[in-house]
Specification:
Layout (H helix, E strand, L loop, with lengths): L1 E12 L3 E9 L6 E7 L10 E11 L7 E2 L5 E15 L3 E8 L5 E6 L5 E6 L6
Length: about 130
């Protein structure tokens, strides 16, 4: 199992509206943060699925950025902490968050023939 860092930024985008940006430090490249936009600004409850739009990877330094970004959008830190990653493949990532607000386990599943993912809250750990 890999332990790394995560952040959730509240992004006040002029183009995409207010949404969360989830950043997870890559277990493969410690200088890189995998990134997804969560348009609904929430994490799913058990039994729900939430759309996560895969965005470009960022440098790890950007994970804790707050202020006004290069597009003129306001960015705030909603939460941050550590995350355990017991499973990651090209189309599935299991994440166990240990933040101040986000403290649950989630499974990200890539939608076929798309760059989008679905996030589901998980009650069981993968084998």
């Amino acid at each position: 199992m890999t332990r790394t860092n995560f952040s959730v930024q509240l992004h006040h985008s002029k183009n995409a509206g207010k949404h969360f940006d989830l950043r997870v430090q890559s277990p493969v490249n410690k200088y890189l943060a995998w990134s997804w936009a969560l348009p609904k600004r929430r994490f799913p409850e058990v039994g729900e699925k939430v759309l996560c739009i895969r965005t470009q990877d960022h440098s790890v330094g950007y994970m804790m950025f707050k202020g006004v970004n290069s597009q003129g959008d306001k960015v705030e830190i909603y939460d941050h902490g550590t995350v355990e990653i017991p499973l990651y493949t090209e189309d599935r990532i299991y994440l166990i968050f240990n933040g101040k607000k986000v403290k649950e386990s989630y499974l990200l599943v890539k939608i076929r023939r798309s760059s989008n993912w679905l996030m589901m809250r998980s009650a069981v750990e993968p084998e």
